[in-house]
Design a protein that fits this description.
The protein has 323 residues and is of the alpha/beta class. It is built from 11 helices and 9 strands. The longest helix has 18 residues.
Length: 323
């Protein structure tokens, strides 16, 4: 069933944003510190058994200079610098194995797949990147309330900074054209892609599918699904913490980060998605600062969205955006 507003209302839904006054200063300081702490990335050739691509096991400096892993998949037999897709992973997934990521190399792109620190044990593809900064304060099981007492300690400060550094790292590779780097992800990966597009330098295009981490205040009021349920569970237990919880989340809300993103963008939304409700997606889409944007609506789908059909839309979009 449809889980949110009628489509006509969604297309005009523009809630008043709640932005901290020091939002930009917070992120500028965070990213500047991470870049200052960064060392050179390592690209180690990986024997994957795949004949049409070269695979590299990548280690780069993320938040506070901490090591983050990724795969880099390059199509063979294409000369010159390549456009690149930097991909971020859904909730509790990791980078998995390189043969799971062949679409973008088959389309002629370099493909950097960032691992998600501390995640990758929830039944999806596994991760290998540790999160060396666990916060000892109480949290609901999962990642959404980890360190939520302050934006300084919040888990997604680290993960979003890793994403910015992943874009930096792609642009530093000699086979990649730094002027043609796109960001991409679905669900949590979509929320991370919004953050990367808003905070990183030189993002040329963004593909954002059914994004999580957007319009937190509405999400927790209209869905009981995980991962947003982690926030309501936390607030139900820590009954006096609501003000601080949402004050922290405002620094990480895709609605606020989208307002800093100017690249051409293709979003997707599913009207039967109870995990990331459509109004939360449209709230971020409408605040996207770039004017070259579109959103694909999958009327009868849930959180799976358009799946392979959306990928076909993205291949057409990227051929134009990164031409």
């Amino acid at each position: 069933m449809f889980v949110d507003m009628p489509l006509a209302e969604l297309r005009s839904y523009r809630p008043e944003p709640t932005e901290p006054t020091d939002f930009d200063a917070f992120w500028q300081r965070t990213v500047t510190q991470a870049r200052a702490a960064a060392g050179p990335a390592r690209f180690e050739p990986c024997e994957s058994g795949l004949r049409t691509v070269e695979v590299f096991d990548v280690t780069f400096s993320g938040y506070a200079g901490q090591p983050v892993r990724a795969w880099l998949v390059l199509p063979r037999h294409i000369e010159g610098r390549l456009p690149c897709v930097v991909q971020f992973i859904g909730y509790n997934g990791g980078r998995g194995l390189p043969h799971e990521y062949l679409t973008w190399s088959a389309a002629g792109y370099a493909h950097l797949v960032m691992d998600s620190r501390g995640q990758g044990s929830g039944g999806h593809a596994h991760a290998v990147t540790a999160d060396p900064d666990p916060v000892g304060t109480p949290a609901t099981p999962g990642y959404v309330t980890r360190g939520i007492g302050s934006p300084e300690t919040y888990y997604y400060r680290r993960l979003f900074t890793d994403a910015v550094r992943a874009v930096d790292t792609a642009g530093e590779h000699p086979r990649i054209d730094r002027d043609r780097v796109a960001v991409h992800g679905g669900s949590q990966g979509g929320g991370i892609a919004i953050a990367a597009a808003g905070l990183a330098r030189g993002v040329a295009a963004a593909m954002v599918d059914v994004p999580f981490l957007c319009h937190f205040r509405r999400a927790v009021e209209i869905t009981d699904a995980h991962p947003y349920r982690e926030i309501t569970t936390y607030c139900a237990t820590h009954r006096l913490s609501e003000e601080q919880v949402f004050a922290t989340l405002d620094y990480f809300d895709g609605v606020n980060l989208a307002a800093r993103a100017a690249a051409p963008a293709l979003f997707s939304v599913a009207l039967m998605d109870s995990v990331c409700p459509p109004s939360t997606v449209f709230a971020a889409y409408h605040r996207w600062a770039g004017t070259d944007k579109d959103i694909t609506v999958w009327k009868f789908n849930g959180h799976e969205g358009g799946s392979a059909h959306q990928t076909a839309e993205q291949i057409r979009f990227l051929a134009k955006a990164l031409a």
